[in-house]
Amino acid sequence: MIPSILLISARMLAFMCLLMSCSGYLILHEGEKCGENKEGACESGLICVPSEPPMDFYAEGICTRVPNCNCSEFQCPPRRRSCYSRMVTDPCGCCSHCPKRKGQVCGGPSWKYGNCDSDLVCALTVGIESVTSPQTGVCKAVPNHLKNVLVRPPCPVQYGCNVHVGTCDCYSDQSCEASFSYNTYDACDKVLTADRMYFYEEKQPDEPEPPKPEYVCNEYGCEVQSCKCVCGYRKCVYFSTPMYEADCCNLLKESGCPNATCPEIPAPPCPADSFISEPHIEPGQCCPVIPAVCTCNFQTCDPKPTYCPNRGLPKLIVKGNGHPGTCCDRYECVNE
User: Fold this and answer.
1) φ, ψ for residue 11 (rounded to 5)?
2) What residue stretch is flagged as signal peptide (predicted)?
3) What three-state secondary structure class fits 258?
4) Is the pLDDT of residue 252 over 90?
5) Is residue 270 part of a domain?
């Protein structure tokens, strides 16, 4: 009787493992299927490209080498203490980082300059096109009538798990938002099991408690060393906000360090249909490597009129080309 019960239990456990992906973290290679209920992620340099439009959150695809993507050619940007929005992943699948805001530099080789927030599009600095690697662009808001022209790039399919109603909910999602708390079912289940053991395990009165592993907190920050801003990860200092590049560079300027003085580049005057982008400064540096420039503000672009008074017809006066001053199509109502 007992062996039969053990056999049934073993079969049930194997069946549950198939349902919940009890296997360890898998590295998938080029050409292998990914996404949907397949645990694991494509190896570095590959992303899961959907074979057809996903239904709801679930998407099945193939590990594919994306053109012009090479994650090994740069280091991911450092993670700050917090983001003003949810973390995002770049279309190459290289890095998770804080999303870029309107007017900030984006794109670049393998998207090294980062991806935009969910309501923005990384558009060319000059022109009416979205950025593709290795092009560099600026994050912009796009009106509805231009969203078919300025489209967001496809995002990689990511697999992961979140805790839902006390269980590990694992699935795949084609999204550029890093929305998973755990990469694998095993990692999620380990945390839940530890929590359950903490509440339900009966401790022996004379049994000493095992030593808890020391948690080491590391955060990104900068400090002044010999007229330089030395930035990197170091031990957290509680009740203190880490100093980032801007504050560190201000200290260098106040102390008279010569390398903190950047050449002044006057901002160019921009037409009414444009705005000034933010200069891009590399982590740990004080001077921008990409200066501020005039770039089109597509929110000033009006759609083609659908109605003209006095039975007039809309006539195209200026064809927009994405250059400051001629960013948008301009129409006038004329009477034939």
Assistant:
1) -65, -40
2) none
3) helix
4) no
5) no
